């Protein structure tokens, strides 16, 4: 896909989302914890572009997705829709070129569980009429109905006048998800956030749904931000349409590139570990040992110093524990947050971190603590 700055629909610059987390009654007497859900993420989404975000549970995918479509206010950085700061438009600050109402219409979401997003007491026709009534006020009732029946047919729900008069409980999971997709598309959006939108479907239906998304994306010229914890699905949804895959780790976007680059030539050790753990990719450069040192995911309340992945990274050197890597360009489309892509960096001279070296330094640290507490106990 060729793209220019002019066709940027959504731009996030250095976005940060921190949540204050209270842990109960005792918190009245102490500072609340801060969850670093998203940190320092910059990402432009272009017209007609499909971007998939992958990463393990809790890494910040949903928070970033919601921030992109204006459902989550960032605690730092900026989010712009076609050059208009979303939150300035919402708060009525500064010179507003695009009203917030238009931004809301342009940025839509389909959820993981379509059942909960569809009112169980309303027929499909009524569910789908309500966005049209709100956002396309000029349409007459017969026009609205014709548009809805046309969409139902287009997504394979035929005969449409049968489906239009069903309640959500009379639909399968895949059909509910199609209704949710139509509802989002009827708003004529520029960008749809699909957060684990196909995860609950059977494997065979997932492919069908992703093919449908491709078809509708081309027909409606909509961009998609597709969130998935499944690397194979992320590749399928992006590769066919020249899209990109972004990899998140502990609140940071650690690598992004074309589907082919991320699947076949990942540069970040975490992307390599994700690929290793994905059954579909296991023939590509597979080693027997999982390329990760520890399974435990660190706590986003207290993320590791330096590179956040250094506590698990099999390639970590001591520099990684103290210095956070910037995002480095690998190709025109691929960039990664890892020193290893720089030929000339102090990383290469600094000693490796291994499980043994780490436990030795932990023991030495514990010894130092003991010494302090002993001297404190002695009244020094
Ligand atoms: N409203 C909130 N208040 C406090 N912490 C939150 C809130 N929302 C999310 N978090 C925390 O922020 C981090 C990122 O959560 P998020 O839901 O974005 O992750 P995710 O990558 O979407 O995970 P999953 O794959 O499980 O859906 C987690 O540690 C989560 O507990
Ligand atoms: S910067 Fe260091 S710890 Fe981080 S991913 Fe690269 S090699 Fe691993
Ligand atoms: Mg999520």
Can you give a write-up of this model?
The protein has helices at residues 61-68, 86-91, 100-106, 114-117, 124-135, 141-154, 160-163, 173-185, 203-220, 231-239, 259-264, 269-276, 318-322, 355-377, and strands at 8-21, 33-46, 50-54, 76-81, 84-85, 107-110, 191-195, 223-227, 244-249, 252-258, 328-329, 335-336. The protein is an alpha/beta fold. It has 2 domains: 5-22 and 31-112 and 190-375, Rossmann fold (3-Layer(aba) Sandwich); 114-186, no CATH class. The strands form 2 sheets. An 8-stranded mixed beta sheet has the order 6-7-8-3-9-10-12-11, sandwiched between helices. A 4-stranded antiparallel beta sheet has the order 2-1-4-5. Helix 5 (124-135) crosses helix 6 (141-154). Mean pLDDT is 89; it is low at 367-380. The chain binds adenosine-5'-triphosphate, iron/sulfur cluster and magnesium ion.
Helix and strand arrangement:
Elements: E1 8-21, E2 33-46, E3 50-54, H1 61-68, E4 76-81, E5 84-85, H2 86-91, H3 100-106, E6 107-110, H4 114-117, H5 124-135, H6 141-154, H7 160-163, H8 173-185, E7 191-195, H9 203-220, E8 223-227, H10 231-239, E9 244-249, E10 252-258, H11 259-264, H12 269-276, H13 318-322, E11 328-329, E12 335-336, H14 355-377
Parallel strand pairs: 3-8, 3-9, 6-7, 7-8
Antiparallel strand pairs: 1-2, 1-4, 4-5, 9-10, 10-12, 11-12
């Amino acid at each position: 896909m060729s793209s220019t700055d002019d066709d940027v629909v959504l731009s996030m610059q250095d976005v940060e989302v921190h949540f204050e987390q209270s842990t109960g009654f005792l918190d009245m007497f102490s500072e609340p914890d801060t969850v670093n859900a998203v940190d320092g993420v910059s990402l432009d989404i272009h017209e007609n572009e499909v971007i998939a975000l992958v990463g393990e549970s809790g890494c910040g995918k949903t928070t970033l997705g919601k921030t992109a479509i204006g459902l989550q206010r960032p605690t730092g950085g900026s989010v712009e829709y076609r050059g208009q700061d979303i939150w300035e438009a919402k708060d009525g600050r500064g010179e507003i070129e695009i009203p917030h109402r238009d931004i809301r219409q342009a940025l839509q979401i389909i959820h993981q569980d379509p059942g909960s997003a569809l009112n169980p007491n309303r027929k499909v026709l009524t569910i789908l009429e309500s966005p049209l009534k709100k956002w396309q006020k000029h349409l007459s009732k017969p026009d609205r109905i014709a548009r809805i029946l046309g969409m139902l047919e287009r997504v394979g729900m035929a005969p449409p006048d049968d489906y239009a008069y069903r309640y959500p409980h009379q639909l399968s999971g895949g059909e509910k998800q199609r209704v949710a997709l139509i509802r989002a598309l009827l708003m004529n959006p520029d960008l749809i956030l699909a957060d684990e939108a196909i995860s609950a479907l059977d494997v065979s239906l997932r492919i069908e749904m992703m093919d449908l998304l491709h078809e509708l994306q081309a027909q409606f010229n909509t961009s998609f931000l597709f969130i998935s914890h499944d690397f194979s699905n992320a590749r399928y949804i992006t590769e066919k349409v020249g899209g990109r895959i972004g990899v998140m780790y502990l609140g940071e976007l650690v690598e992004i590139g074309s589907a082919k680059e991320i699947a076949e030539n990942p540069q970040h050790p975490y992307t390599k570990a994700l690929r290793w753990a994905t059954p579909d990719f296991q023939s590509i450069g597979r080693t027997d040992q999982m390329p990760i040192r520890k399974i435990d995911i660190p706590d986003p309340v207290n993320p590791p110093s330096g590179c956040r992945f250094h506590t698990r990274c099999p390639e970590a050197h001591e520099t990684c524990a103290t210095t956070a890597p910037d995002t480095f360009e690998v190709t025109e489309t691929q960039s990664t947050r890892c020193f290893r892509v720089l030929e000339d960096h102090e990383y290469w001279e600094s000693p490796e971190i291994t499980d043994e070296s780490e436990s030795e330094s932990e023991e030495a640290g514990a010894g130092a603590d003991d010494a302090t507490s002993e001297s404190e106990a002695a009244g020094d």
